[in-house]
Amino acid sequence: EEEEDVGVWMKDCILDHFKEKQIPLTIKYIDPTYMIRAVPANAQDSVYCSVLAQHAVHGAMAGFTGVTVAKVYEKLVYLPTLALAKQETKKINPKGRWMSRLIFSTQQPDLAPEMLMTRVRSLKVDTAVRNSSVPVSLNMVLDPGDEVHRLEVINLSSKFPSRNVPTTMKDAIFNPNLFLDNEAWTTQSFQKWNVDDNKGRTTLQMLRSGPRKTLHWDPTDPDFAAAIVTCGGICPGLNSVIRELVKTLTGYGIKKIYGIIGGFKGCVEPETWIELTAEGVQGIHTQGGSILVSDRGNPPHSEIAKSLASKGIRSYFVLGGDGTHKGAMQTFDAMQEINYECSVIGIPKTIDNDIALLDTSFGFDTASTEAAKAIESAYVESTTNANCIGLVKLMGRHCGFIAAMATLAARVVDICLIPEMNISQEKLLDHVAEVMRKKKQAVIVVAEGCGDTLITSDSSKTDAGGNKVLADIGPYIKDEILAHCKKLGLPCSIKYIDPTYMIRSVPANAYDSLYCATLAQQAVHGAMAGYSGISVGKVDERYVMLPIHAVTSKGTRHVDVNGRMFERLMATTNQPSFAP
Asked: How far apart are CA 278 and CA 154, in angstroms?
């Protein structure tokens, strides 16, 4: 039976209601139903689709049948198709976290009819899976040497008396089951690669982030103030985080919220701070960059702590990467030394997606999608100009996640070079010549970090953040390829594209915007509950609080040249090993 068009129906109902009330109104009705499903996949979905297809073929060739390939808790797995078929389709739980975030974002009231109980999600899903599964003992999951380690986090109540105030978010979070206590732990998913995998693994247990019923701070305290700072380079989503921090703090009832201008340097210049309001940040998520003007450089953190204390800052939110988190922890330590009570909360930001432990960092999906567009432009240039190479240089100082992700998404790249690779320039140039002889065109992607591996950078030159200034690999490799082709008598032109600052200066896409908003909400919930010296993030699809040292001590994440992502990269480009 054909359903009535609810959009047209609602439009007519609203117009009739306003006409009855004699209130002027026009409605511009937009129905993008077929538009949103007819567009090409973005970078994340494109790679996800490829990976699902590859694993489906792997499973078929290994003899599995009656299975569906899927990603569960960030792990690609085979699931019995029968179990999926017996489940109800997934829906938004009207009493769950998604609906709670939606209501908080729109500020709409409960629209259910009076005296009508909202139906709680059915438990048949769990029953269907349980009936299609086989119980196993923990001895079959854990091997000798396996350990579970708990990442404890600091709460200010261990040193300072808590205000023990009932939460002021009861009206915004309508389901009491969404409030967590201090024993809401989650454990990483267990995994075993094969029968010979007996080396012993360490699985982490982390505290779930989210609202608490009892607050450490009193939001009605007129002296309470919060501050937000963005450090390091910009990336998509910074303004989305800032917006949601302000919105959530306001939701708790906080009146004084400062935006610190110019990174850590601005922390010791309180006269330059600006006051942030929910109305003032309403539309900033549609802008790229940071309204707080990000910067590099670190004044003494003892001075930062004193400056924050002088302004009565009790919640301090720091947006940045590995170096910024180290700085935030130094500020936390400095506050402890002067016995100042403040929640120091990090929100991890790096466009390179190189923060260990986390599933992904915000802005990476947006940047990868923009990078794939640059590769597509290079492909057009290479295929519509005679004997042409499209050369694209992408961000990635020490890791090649953006270059690899964009290459996998675009699927038109012949050669992709990332810092993790060991590259013989002679082998590389010979392969470029071979591709040009066969195809008369090529697309090459190189990560900026190859400016410290393929060629040598001046180690004495550093930027304001202490990072080594890399040699510019793009023009270098362009000149080397042209010289090599000229030497061999091969006609060749190169169209060089460097979208470095373009891919990081755009607003966050839908996925990153939602991710940023959720991270910001979790950060404020943690601060109001009295946690400090922590960072918030998503691990195995669960939002958790991590001690900052757990984020910084593991170092940066790199593309594993023996791992699956690199194997997919090599299979996509069909390039050989360039190792000497």
From this structure: 29
- Residues 399 and 542: their CA atoms lie apart, in Å, by 25
Find out whether 232 and 296 touch, Cβ atoms under 8 Å.
yes
* Helices 301-310, 322-337: inter-axial angle, 10-degree rounding: 60
* Structural tokens at position 191: 């995994």
**Do 160 and 217 contact (CB within 8 A), yes or no?**
no
Share the mean pLDDT of the chain. 91
Cβ(207)–Cβ(185) below 8 Å: yes
Query: CA 238 to CA 216: how far, in whole Å?
Result: 27
Q: What is the mean pLDDT of residues 419-431?
A: 96
CA 422 to chain centre: 28
Taking Cα atoms as reference points, which of 572, 579, 223 lies closest to residue 409?
Answer: 572
Cα 206 to Cα 204: distance, rounded to the nearest angstrom = 6
Residue 295 one-letter amino acid: D
Tell me the per-residue pLDDT of 221-245, one tens digit each, with 9 for 90 and over.
999 999 999 999 999 999 999 999 9
Residues in a beta bridge with 77: 70
CA dihedral 475, 481, 485, 487 (to 10 degrees): 80
Question: Cα 113 to the chain's mean position, in Å?
Answer: 38
Cβ atoms of 522 and 210 closer than 8 Å: yes
H/E stretch holding 535: strand 534-539
Adjacent-strand bridge partners of 207: 185, 545
Distance of CA 89 to the CA centre of its chain: 27
**H helices within 312-412, ranges in order?**
322-337, 364-384, 401-410
- Model confidence, pTM: 0.92
pLDDT digits (tens, 9 = 90+) for 376-420: 999 999 999 999 999 999 999 889 999 999 999 999 999 999 999
Which single residue is written with the structure tokens 């060991």? 422
Hey, is 247 helix, strand or coil? helix
User: Do 547 and 154 touch, CB atoms closer than 8 A?
Assistant: yes
Contact between residue 431 and residue 437 where contact means Cβ atoms under 8 Å apart: no
**3-class secondary structure, 426:** helix
Helix orientation angle between 43-61 and 364-384, rounded to the nearest 10 degrees? 90
What gap in Å lies between CA 406 and CA 378, rounded to an integer?
13
Residue 122 has pLDDT above 50, yes or no: no
Annotated catalytic, 352?
Answer: yes
In 3D space, the residue among 187, 189, 186 whose CA is nearest the CA of residue 141 turns out to be: 189
Of the candidates 16, 31, 110, 352, the residue annotated as catalytic is 352
Residue carrying structure tokens 């986390």:
358
Could you tell me the pLDDT band of residue 270, with boundaries at 50, 70 and 90?
A: very high
To which H or E segment does residue 318 belong? strand 313-320
Do the beta carbons of residue 79 and residue 65 sit within 8 Å?
no
pLDDT at 471: 86
Q: Are 259 and 228 a contacting pair, CB within 8 Å?
A: yes
Tokens of 205: 């247990």
373, 412 contact by CB (below 8 A): no
Task: For 354-492, list the strands marked E by DSSP.
Answer: 388-394, 415-417, 441-447
Q: How far is CA 543 from CA 73, 76, 181, 359, 360, in A?
A: 12, 20, 14, 10, 12
- Whole-number Cα distances in Å, 213 to 9, 68, 226, 521, 557: 41, 40, 20, 15, 36
